[in-house]
Amino acid sequence: MVKWLVNAVVLGGIRLILTALGGYRCLREEEPPRTGALIVAPNHVSHADPALVAVTMPRRCRYLATDELFTIPFLGRLCTVMGAFPIKQDSPDLGAMRRALGVLKAGEALVAFPEGHESVDGAMQPLQGGVLMLAQRSGCAVLPVGIAGTDSVVPPRSYRFLRTSTKLVVVYGPAMPWEKLSGGLAGRPGLEAARERLEAEIRRLAARAREERGKR
């Protein structure tokens, strides 16, 4: 009960902050699964991306977050309250991967950014293998997400807050079961097929988010 209440208060605070910074819109091509193991996979353009996902997903999520965030006193505590746990960047982190698999095996939703790093210019980066390996090993569905505008309120690689005159936009696509994502292939061929399909879908959704944001 206490955890639920704290989470609700934090989410309420995030909504207020995002509204004060210019507001946001959420579009769903299909309703995200409300139960069962799920990897939520957005494009990554700002440190504000997890916050936008947190207030627009219809269920509580856990988050894979870069370990540097946990070194910042207030932000690190906020990440923990929101159900995030750290992963080391640019090096294998087997402990974090085992923990992520445990989250999925427990039937929870996990937000993980397949690009690994946020983009400094808004362009989508090649997908790294960690998220795809989690999906393959757990067999769970992946929910592709497109985000636009968060880099205008929290610029890449910074923690400065700016106000924007155009609402942030997040677009949720259809959840993709692993069998569909991998084309039914096993091993490395399945991973490569899944990488191509997931990257194409996130690109499509990010482009739609940018287009919708342009409509004001």
Structural class: alpha/beta
The DSSP helix count reads: 8
**Shape estimate:** globular
- Give me the count of strands: 7
Question: What's the structural domain tally?
Answer: 1
Look at the structure and name the CATH superfamily: Glycerol-3-phosphate (1)-acyltransferase
SSE order: HEEHEHEHEHEHEHH
Write up what this structure looks like.
The protein has helices at residues 2-20, 49-56, 73-81, 94-105, 130-138, 150-153, 178-182, 187-214, and strands spanning 24-28, 38-42, 61-66, 84-87, 109-111, 141-148, 168-172. The protein has a seven-stranded mixed sheet, with helices on both faces. The chain is globular and about 45 Å long. The chain has a single domain, classed as Glycerol-3-phosphate (1)-acyltransferase. Helix 1 (2-20) packs across helix 2 (49-56) and helix 4 packs across helix 5. By secondary structure, the chain is an alpha/beta fold. Strand 3 (61-66), helix 3 and strand 4 form a beta-alpha-beta unit.
